Amino acid sequence: SIRPSNFPPGPRGLPLVGYIPFLSKLDAEYPHLALKKLSDHYGPVTGFYLGPCQPFISVCGYQAVREALYNEDLAGRPSNAARRERTFGQRLGVIHNEGPEWQEQRRFTLRHLRDLGFGRTSSEGLIREEIEDLLEEIRACQLVQHGSVDFKGMFNLSLINILWALIGGERFKRDDQRLSHLLDIVDNFVHSADFTRANIPLPDFCLSYFPSLTRKLLGLRNDLFTPLQDFIRERIRQHSKDRSEDNPRDFIDVYLQEMTKSQLNSSDNSSFHAETTSGSIGFAILYLLHNPEIQRRIQMELDQICGDSLPQLSQRPSLPYTEAALMEAQRLSNITPLAVAHKALRDTQLQGYSIPRGSIVTVNLFTVHHDNDDDESFWKESEIFRPERHLSPDGRKLIKSDHLLPFSAGKRACLGEPLARNTYFLFTASLLKVFEFHPLPDRPLPTLKPKNGLTLGYDGFEAMVTSRS
Ligand code: HEM
């Protein structure tokens, strides 16, 4: 056997592509559930080989996931030709990069997005404008459809606009054809593949010699990126023409200032990030449709603290119940159940096992948020939506726990967390302040089952929306 000694336990040798049917047998739809089943059998750290030489390590449960996230040897990212194809054939940007270049890109992005108001209250105005537009659109739907509103894709539009305002300095009108076209691309791309297929470690030559077969196998619709790349390239060209050295307006200006030679790539990231935040808002509303009593309690708290105005970031500390409900929705919905695949940068140890350099490592955040409901479990009755889990016994203080990791943790933790948190809070709290959400009469409650893809999304749902006076 090629397994090094002390390799984590797991099934023997899986052929490269054979691992898909294998995982499907464990769970036909969701890779994170398939990997959880494997770990129920073998333990929190499971190892197997894809084909002759690609080790794959699945990490489940709070203890092992934390150890993995704080082990810097596991902070790499797998790369393959199909992934690089989306970034002009090179490893660019932050999310799929590693080593000194990743470090530099991550630092640069954080520093300048912060300067541009990202995650601070100065971006509140920008988010507020999007919220006002969204509320308008919902009111218009209410009128036309007698109160019933279809939420498919609705939040995505707002989120793309916020990200693009920071990156490209431009806001689209909600009915702009170019915007809806870009959104279709993003949506089709994110749901054109799933985590398992996107991580098949096919050797690079496959893409050169068997391009269409390889793409079919990976399911990645990189071709969808061409119009997105064209769009971004055009904006960069425009920016380089009319930017001023002293007064950068947005991230593209800052980036151009720093390295005029390098090609900015934000397309790779933006699809993932708009989906995650809009997905969180959608799931929060969905869970509150299922839990009307909790929806009412949030609304009571919002009325008490915000009066007749929309909620503001500065009021967050006075809104513990609302915050707790939002955290609970994130715990249950698991937009990114397997985070983004990590890679072992060198030989290392995890829970006492040896992890060979180059291993693909998945941290199963879902299993941190869902316990097996035994005596040792942290989240008791983990399937139940219960905001009180995140509150002190008197209900006045929020309890933040490291058993809740929607943004992951460690060196690779989500870079957009401050912006995502603010956006998620402002949108969801504003929607609940202004509207009541009810199920459609005589119809079953919309499903909580997520739509599979690179991230888990909510399936478009309809609800009766009434305005609160
Ligand atoms: C609710 C919304 C969001 C969730 C749940 C989320 C979650 C995550 C997770 C789980 C990861 C992978 C961490 C790991 O590999 O261990 C990640 C990475 C990342 N996220 Fe987010 N994210 C959200 C929104 C955003 C937004 C709005 C942005 C950008 C403005 C963003 C930028 C990034 C970047 C750049 C990375 C890669 C970091 C790296 O590889 O160093 N995210 N996110």
Automatic annotation (TrEMBL):
Cofactor(s) required for function per UniProt: heme
Entry-linked InterPro entries: Cyt_P450, Cyt_P450_CS, Cyt_P450_E_grp-I, Cyt_P450_sf, Cytochrome_P450_fam2
Protein's cellular compartments: Endoplasmic reticulum membrane; Microsome membrane
GO biological process: organic acid metabolic process; xenobiotic metabolic process
SUPFAM superfamilies: Cytochrome P450
Binding site for heme: 414
Source superkingdom: Eukaryota
Keyword annotations of the record: Endoplasmic reticulum, Heme, Iron, Membrane, Metal-binding, Microsome, Monooxygenase, Oxidoreductase, Signal
Gene Ontology CC terms, in alphabetical order: endoplasmic reticulum membrane
Role, per record: May be involved in the metabolism of insect hormones and in the breakdown of synthetic insecticides.
Protein name (record): Cytochrome P450
The organism of origin for this protein: Daphnia galeata
